[in-house]
């Protein structure tokens, strides 16, 4: 088995449980912004539609087809107009309220803290994320994850987004190691797995939903606790 000295983690959907935190936030905003008064959808439909729209927009953002502002401005407009509201009925301030509240949520995947406590004495731990700098630091601090990581590399700061191998090369330069010394762990085949592979870095595909795919990562796990069998 290969040995590594540094471990690179994606944050959203890998350590920080984006879906659970987002759902909790959206349910709160559904009540606060009195969306039920429109009489067109319930909170579960609101969450499901937002999840679909947000995923589509993030895919466009990762491919460089839309900007950060476009993603943030469009996701609630597209969600609510898709549920039957007129554009002028979309509550002002909804997007900002989501951006302010969601990063303060603290749900992480099972075994996250156990894993990081196990790894921290043995490896240099780092975050490589396409998430926006302002929100990612809030997430890390709110969920008490920040102290485990030496370097936090965001696409905003280095100018390249995963799967562009240059974000990984930038990370390697910052921590002063070679690709073969690192292992990348993430949930996104395109961004995390193929991006790391292009940079010569071994990968772990975190696949808790047992998603079917044709990719061949170095390793694949369904639970973070399985990483201790690799490391």
From TrEMBL:
Which domain of life does the protein's organism represent?
A: Bacteria
Question: Which Pfam families does this chain map to?
Answer: HAD_2 (PF13419)
Fetch the InterPro entries from UniProt.
HAD-like_sf, HAD-SF_hydro_IA, HAD-SF_hydro_IA_YjjG/PynA, HAD_2, HAD_sf, PGP-like_dom2, Pyrimidine_5'-ntase_YjjG
Q: Where does the secretion signal sit in this chain?
A: none
The UniProt entry, under Gene3D superfamilies, shows: HAD superfamily/HAD-like, Putative phosphatase, domain 2
Any one GO molecular-function label of the UniProt entry: 5'-nucleotidase activity
- Protein name per UniProt: Noncanonical pyrimidine nucleotidase, YjjG family
């Amino acid at each position: 088995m290969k040995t590594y000295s540094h471990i690179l983690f994606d944050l959203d959907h890998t350590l920080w449980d984006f879906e659970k935190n987002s759902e909790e936030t959206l349910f709160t905003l559904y009540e606060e912004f009195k969306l039920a008064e429109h009489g067109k959808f319930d909170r579960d439909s609101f969450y499901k539609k937002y999840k679909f729209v947000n995923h589509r927009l993030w895919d466009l953002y990762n491919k460089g087809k839309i900007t950060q502002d476009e993603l943030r401005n469009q996701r609630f407009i597209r969600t609510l107009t898709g549920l039957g509201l007129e554009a002028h009925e979309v509550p002002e301030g909804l997007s900002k309220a989501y951006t302010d509240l969601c990063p303060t949520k603290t749900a992480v995947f099972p075994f996250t803290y156990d894993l990081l406590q196990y790894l921290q004495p043995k490896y240099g731990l780092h975050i490589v994320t396409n998430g926006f700098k302002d929100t990612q630091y809030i997430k890390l601090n709110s969920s008490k994850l920040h102290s485990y990581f030496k370097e936090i590399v965001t696409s905003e700061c280095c100018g390249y987004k995963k799967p562009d191998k240059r974000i990984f090369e930038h990370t390697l330069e910052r921590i002063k190691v070679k690709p073969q010394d690192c292992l990348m762990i993430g949930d996104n085949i395109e961004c995390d797995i193929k991006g790391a592979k292009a940079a010569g870095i071994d990968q772990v595909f975190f696949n808790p939903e047992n998603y079917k795919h044709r990719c061949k990562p170095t390793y694949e796990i369904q639970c973070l606790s399985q990483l201790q069998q690799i490391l």
